[in-house]
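Hey everyone, long-time lurker, first post.

I ran two proteins through the pipeline my lab uses and got sequence/structure pairs for each. Pasting them in order. The first:
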Amino acid sequence: MALRTLVLAAALIAAASPLSASRFDRGMGTPAPAGTPATRYCMYVEAATGTRIELLECWTRAEWAENGVDVDEDWPKEGVSVIG
């Protein structure tokens, strides 16, 4: 009986994991929020060679543009938060 309960619990956890994870996926399709020139947009940037750790950078729209990033285009995939 205990084995049956354990197997059922494991099956429920495995089935629920993709459902709960999908709510927090990046790429929800929401546009970048409007802000002032001083507003900083925090987005994930590509990991450096040799590491799998993603970096989070917070820059203004102008600073992102100087680095070749279009905030409106990349926000749905990489956007995290807005400061200011």
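...and the second, right after it:
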Amino acid sequence: MINREDWHMIKQMHDRGCYQKDIAETLGVSARTVSRALKRQGAPTKRHCGVRSSKLNAFKPLIDELLAAEVWNAEVIYAEIKTRGYRGGRTLVRQYG
């Protein structure tokens, strides 16, 4: 991935008439990266990865209640939350803690 400085270098070299493969070689990136940068007409924007919510989130209060009632068997907890609409797997239930 290129940064703003790389983008400005790509733009300057392209404006001077340099070939994309020569620009790529100078910057140590692929020609395809240079091509994409020129098509984008600017430096890449920062992407923020979203945090996905767990399928288990809605059921954590119920699981906490079961654990407080000394139900420690993950299979029993899994069966209980499955009857209430849980669609995830057993592993998430086992790892919760």
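Reply from user beta_strand_b:
Welcome! Quick read of the second one: Helices lie at 4-15, 20-27, 31-40, 60-68, 74-83, 90-95. The radius of gyration is 26 Å.
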